Amino acid sequence: MSRSSEYPFPIFISSTDYNLRDLRSELSRFLDQLGYRPILSSSEGFPDNTPKLEPWESCLPVLDTCFVMILVIDGRYGSGLRWPNFKQLFADKKVSPTHGEYLFRHAHGKRMLVFVRDEVLTYYQSYKKVMEKVEDDKDETEEIT
């Protein structure tokens, strides 16, 4: 298949890795066939030129160079981690790598395509309805759900 342009736009694929490995691989292959350059932090040769950063933080400078980010949200969150080199964005919160990528991209006002699995969206919509009924009282919502 011929490439769509002389410069293959980098597209960052963000999701939890272990439960979506097949989906990430297929999406990467599909984007490559369309002439884009898919970037996955789990790929061999991922550009980590910043040894001062924690391994999960090293994706943010790479993400900043990408034309667009594709975010896939499924039922897993991942491990909450501290981001010591990005305290201005994360403060001292523990945030999963995927969530961190989303927050970073959103804070910089850059392009994202977000895909949410049906089951997760259904759960979220149910949660929102419960929150409306208890007037945003999170403690009471946790007791109900």
In whole angstroms, the N-to-C terminal distance is: 49 Å
Mean pLDDT over all positions: 85
Distinct helical segment count? 6
Biggest sheet, spatial arrangement of strands:
2-1-3-4
**How are helices and strands ordered from N to C?**
EHEHEHHEHH
Radius of gyration from the alpha-carbon trace, in angstroms: 17 Å
What share of the residues lie within helices? 25-40%
**For the report, how would you describe the main beta sheet?**
4 strands, parallel
Q: In what range is the share of β-strand residues? A: 5-15%
* Overall geometry: globular
Low-confidence stretches: none
Structural class: alpha/beta
The number of E-state strands comes to 4
Which helices and strands occur, and which strands form pairs?
Blueprint: E1 10-14, H1 21-33, E2 37-39, H2 59-64, E3 68-73, H3 87-90, H4 97-107, E4 112-116, H5 118-133, H6 138-144
Parallel strand pairs: 1-2, 1-3, 3-4
What can you tell me about this protein's structure?
With 145 residues, this protein is of the alpha/beta class. Helix content is 39%, strand content 13%. The chain is built from 6 helices and 4 strands. The chain has helices at residues 21-33, 59-64, 87-90, 97-107, 118-133, 138-144; strands at 10-14, 37-39, 68-73, 112-116. The chain has a 4-stranded parallel beta sheet, with helices on both faces. Strand 1 (10-14), helix 1 (21-33) and strand 2 (37-39) form a beta-alpha-beta unit. The longest helix is centred in the C-terminal third of the chain and has 16 residues, at 118-133. The radius of gyration is 17 Å and the shape is globular. It starts with 9 loop residues before the first strand and ends with a helix. The relative contact order is 0.15.
